[in-house]
Amino acid sequence: MDLTFEEFRDSLASRSRRAKVLKRDGRHFFVLISQQFSKEELGNLCDTATAIRRLDRHVDGRDYLRNLLRGARIMNLFAQPSTRTAESFVAAADKLGATSRLVSDIRTSSFSKGESVEDSVRTLSSFFDAIVARHPDDDFGARASWALSKTKRTIPVISAGSGKSQHVTQSLLDFYTLRYSLAERGGVDGKTVMIVGDIARNRAARSLAYLLTKFDKPKIHFVSPEAHAPDDELLAYIRGHEIEVQVHNAIEPVLREHGEGIDAMYMTRLQQEWDKGSAAGQPDANKKLGAPDAFILHHEYRKHIRPDCVLMHPLPRVNELPDEWEDHPGFVVWRQVRNGMWIRAAVFATVFGADAEIRDRSRRLGLT
Amino acid sequence: MDLTFEEFRDSLASRSRRAKVLKRDGRHFFVLISQQFSKEELGNLCDTATAIRRLDRHVDGRDYLRNLLRGARIMNLFAQPSTRTAESFVAAADKLGATSRLVSDIRTSSFSKGESVEDSVRTLSSFFDAIVARHPDDDFGARASWALSKTKRTIPVISAGSGKSQHVTQSLLDFYTLRYSLAERGGVDGKTVMIVGDIARNRAARSLAYLLTKFDKPKIHFVSPEAHAPDDELLAYIRGHEIEVQVHNAIEPVLREHGEGIDAMYMTRLQQEWDKGSAAGQPDANKKLGAPDAFILHHEYRKHIRPDCVLMHPLPRVNELPDEWEDHPGFVVWRQVRNGMWIRAAVFATVFGADAEIRDRSRRLGLT
Amino acid sequence: MDLTFEEFRDSLASRSRRAKVLKRDGRHFFVLISQQFSKEELGNLCDTATAIRRLDRHVDGRDYLRNLLRGARIMNLFAQPSTRTAESFVAAADKLGATSRLVSDIRTSSFSKGESVEDSVRTLSSFFDAIVARHPDDDFGARASWALSKTKRTIPVISAGSGKSQHVTQSLLDFYTLRYSLAERGGVDGKTVMIVGDIARNRAARSLAYLLTKFDKPKIHFVSPEAHAPDDELLAYIRGHEIEVQVHNAIEPVLREHGEGIDAMYMTRLQQEWDKGSAAGQPDANKKLGAPDAFILHHEYRKHIRPDCVLMHPLPRVNELPDEWEDHPGFVVWRQVRNGMWIRAAVFATVFGADAEIRDRSRRLGLT
What we know:
3 copies of one chain form a homotrimer.
Chain A: H1 5-13, H2 15-22, E1 23-24, E2 27-28, E3 30-31, H3 39-55, H4 59-68, E4 73-78, H5 83-95, E5 99-103, H6 117-125, E6 130-135, H7 140-149, E7 157-162, H8 168-181, E8 192-196, H9 203-212, E9 219-223, H10 232-239, E10 244-248, H11 251-258, E11 264-267, E12 310-312, H12 333-351, H13 355-364
Parallel strand pairs in A: 3-7, 4-5, 4-6, 6-7, 8-9, 8-11, 9-10, 11-12
Antiparallel strand pairs in A: 1-2
Helix pairs in contact in A: 1-2, 3-12, 3-13, 5-12, 6-7, 8-9, 8-12
């Protein structure tokens, strides 16, 4: 493949050319953006995650799983620290028997000696069989994939968050949890989802909205501070998929008017570390953290929603989703965290081509 | 269990209520303080450690051990760096086939975004089967245990040192070494132990003294600088258990008078990083490190003690226990280090309920 | 063994006494300097590396390898950060089934409390079966080996770079790659090698030159800035082994005159982090990094060399070996990186006494 990096990157944005650069032997090899998965592929990923989760419950299944990627070595290249995301990937790899290493100093060491990103990634890749990459640059995952795709020893790259634009495995775990929670009510098609927070700058909230466009006529209520309301591009994209969308700036009125019809609420914290006056990526120390009243899901709002309404949050949370909600039947926040591990295991299985075998085994054993 | 944190913490201090919050299914599940083990349980822990140590000597035993906790994942949550304690736990987990991860940034990352300790511990716990925690707050281990005990997925918590108050596994390894070294002389009951150092602020020395109270009429000689002599609370507690205790402020006179009767000496360094004028936790750079003459076990004191007197030190040492002692028959300092690994493996076996099986196997094979 | 450290260190410098302190049971136990291997031992190391590389290609071979050092625990004690060297060792240990830990704070923690290097190394060694050490002090590896050789539980020590003097495994991987690349042309004997860079202060370049002295009449062209030309000691040593050596200060004239006769080129970057005006170990931020024209291997020089000329570089590179060279048939830079992993695996196999068995198996299976 003799693409320049610019051609590679542009291919990612094109629905028709994307598969050519991201897939190898018919399977996803570079996992960089939520949009790269078709509705069918999303279904397969979720089924693989469920199969792994159920196989892992018994000794035989665990032994089977831990044998699948035995000997495979995963590099978690985290230029930005993110303990929980990293540990989720490491646990996922463990479940399938792969070995993980956390490498966090890509920006120091040899870079300061004048080495190129490409050389650095390629050198480190020599010791590994797949890379999980998190980096503040929007393009890092794509650049690493491009650099490796030109070598004789190309290995899979999975993005664990690139800049502010994408966090593909977070959106997959959110989708997996939502799909699972709505399974007995016919799945995601036609459902009404309320998404609360800094929509404009929260990649988890935005990614979820993008994924919803793959389904049949869901409805979306956004609730966000005016300064961080969903941008026109996002709204136009969603509406272009025949999805009914409304934008609000406080939770309570939405619940009073539409509460009974809401199937799922996706709460997020206000990302105050990006506010004016904050040092890069750190919240202003003099400012009290937490959402103002309009964006807090007060416990007394419980009366407005159905008992089967799904309650989600990508964590960490501040004050927007109080502890009292934990006993609500639809509260699945802690399940989301565990699901992050299962869906990442499913992603590993997919890039290494072991996913179909896992689903088959689980089906044969009557687990799914 | 619907205790508040304050109720949980208060239960720890009560001999009668302690077991209820720390044990599950009859076994220790949260390992937080030395006092939680009965004399019989201490004996079982030591026997388990010995069984593991002996099984580990041969290929078959090693394979058996490495299969016991296969697939279990341990998080070593170290808010304070402590390479040797962490590596001892990791090695211990390895012996039983469990996988370890070292997580050290609990105080940064999501905490700075306003997350609670409880959410943070709980999120990370999702990827693990047990937590080993070291933290500067006295209450951290208890708080983590309490938070997890309220969830659906409660996992064991083992303290690796909380604040200045307790270092439970250090006291267990010291006890294990002392018991083993005195085994041919009838065990710890009735023995005379000299403990040297900053008694008032050395948690290892204090913990050992507390453990001695579980035995029948041992005698204790404390030797410490006046400013850091054992406090009245400690002395009252020990005397309350019918233990004869004397306090001195120099080693030599004690040895000249009582040397022949001393069964074990527990040397510790003076913890000068806590002295006035020292920056928090770091020794004063302008001050020469090391004990003054009265607290150094000079090699010429050898003539005052018996050849079977046990010599211990929790390390690191400065000048208080000179190298020349290494060939003394009772010098067991390096054995203490290895014992730290074996007793921690025994603690893991205990919280996962594999200890009785290990002891049985070892007995059947005639190893213990 | 009752040597003082000074006696131990002096033994290293002596060809006749070296083996006595570095070997145990006839095999290398402490791997500290390139010179410790005889020509025959170098051949065995390379054969072991090749055997491992080929066994690793198939499931059966991988399983065999991963069983060899199962349960062995390696401490990578890196006082200086070096991600790629560390990861290369970890990957190598993984291939043979050993477990690795990266410990990087030897200079902090207990050292600041007044502990000796010997106590610190010995304490940590209690949890491990071998040590890989990288340290800014030239003597650290030797000191650790000496300290451990006096204990009852002596474990192997492998240097991963000590100060500026030696980087033994780098020179082994360079040698392995060179030998392999020249295998069809009769090996290293009598070949002409051009070595470019800061010869005086580049330990990789110097070590390679030292290793070449073990072979029959090779020729060496050094190309270096005058300020960092090979020192008289190095030149005298090489000439003392009947090796023809020339010193130049620009690449182009050498290639124009001798290009057709050159069998291998070893390019290195200029180590500008040591230049005057640079903060310790960091390049001057105000100075453009990279070699001046005379030390860049411009792509148009291709016409001067043979297509089978071997092109090597220890990485990281800056501008001295442009990307355009990657499709030259002799370009083996990326193979060097992978070879670093294989030769380190061979070193582990050697210190644990598993190397002969590996070579035998590979031979029986017709792999070598």
